[in-house]
Design goal:
Blueprint (H helix, E strand, L loop, with lengths): L1 E3 L13 H10 L2 E7 L3 H13 L3 E5 L13 H11 L4 E8 L7 H17 L4 E6 L2 H10 L5 E4 L5 H9 L2 E5 L9 H9 L5 E3 L22 H12 L3 H15 L2 H12 L1
Parallel strand pairs: 1-2, 2-3, 3-4, 4-5, 5-6, 6-7, 7-8
Helix pairs in contact: 8-9
The chain binds zinc ion (ZN).
Length: 265
């Protein structure tokens, strides 16, 4: 069964239609959905989603695009939440120098603080990395964590291997489905299969068949997996099995949390 390793199911775009979206995803073989928080408000939203949908798991962290909104005690709140709740990772964290470089130092400071928290709680990280790959790698070498996922990966082959050596998987989704995305396709085609996880990043990055304005939801992961299988010349069943295992390897808490929730029923 498929795992959508990155989906913002709590996003406003989904506007209380999560029931339908999760059901549709299940109907398309998407068994689990990983929902990373992006800011303080979304901590409670993603935790509530898990209460409602046992197949949705979450990560807790501050996304680099929301860093300017941080309040003084927010990092302390994150620490308390990591202690109290059951995230599968610290995320979505990272660096984004595409949107702005003006707060570069602050972005780095908050990223490092969150890497340290991941280390303290022995959690992997889910990372957003845009025009900042070398800076992210530099910080990961300085403040090692137990791996995780570099989501929507679009770096060089060499940078991809640097992440893999640090214990990371690389996330591929809708971006690779565009005809002009030859670089991402080359990465998706030639990187070691055990280093790849699949994601929709819904509602962002709609795959080519929806068009840039299309409504992306986790059910699209099935077709993304089919596209990926064709790209690699593999059969869909192996892609589903291998990417499933890769996601569990990157986020081992999924197994633990899903076993314990089964016991409750
Ligand atoms: Zn994201």
């Amino acid at each position: 069964m498929l795992i959508d390793s990155h989906c913002h199911l709590d996003a406003l775009e989904f506007n209380q239609e999560q029931d339908v979206i999760v059901k549709l995803a299940l109907d398309h073989g998407v068994e689990k959905i990983i929902v990373p928080a992006v800011n303080r408000k979304s901590f409670d939203d993603v935790i509530n989603l898990r209460k409602k949908f046992p197949n949705c798991l979450y990560a807790l962290g501050f996304h680099p695009m929301y860093i300017n909104d941080l309040k003084e005690d927010d990092l302390y709140t994150l620490e308390t939440y990591l202690k109290t709740y059951e995230p599968v990772a610290v995320g979505e964290i990272g660096l984004d120098f595409f949107v702005t470089k003006d707060n570069k130092l602050l972005q780095e400071e908050i990223f490092v603080a969150q890497l340290k928290l991941a280390n303290t709680f022995d959690l992997p990280v889910i990372m957003h990395v845009r025009q900042a790959i070398d800076d992210v790698l530099k910080n990961l070498r300085r403040y090692p964590v137990k791996g995780g996922i570099a989501h929507a990966f679009n770096g060089s082959m060499q940078q991809a291997h640097a992440f893999i050596e640090l214990g990371f998987k690389l996330g591929f989704g809708g971006a690779m489905t565009y005809t002009r995305a030859t670089h991402i396709q080359a990465l998706a085609k030639s990187l070691p299969i055990e280093s790849i996880v699949l994601e929709t990043d819904a509602p962002d990055i709609p795959p080519s068949w929806l068009g840039h304005e299309g409504r992306n939801t986790p059910k699209e992961l099935k077709q993304i997996a089919t596209f990926f299988a064709e790209l690699r010349g593999m059969n869909l069943t192996s892609v589903i099995e291998i990417s499933h295992q890769n996601t569990l390897d990157a986020l081992p808490k999924i197994v633990q949390l899903c076993t314990s929730s089964k016991k409750l029923h």
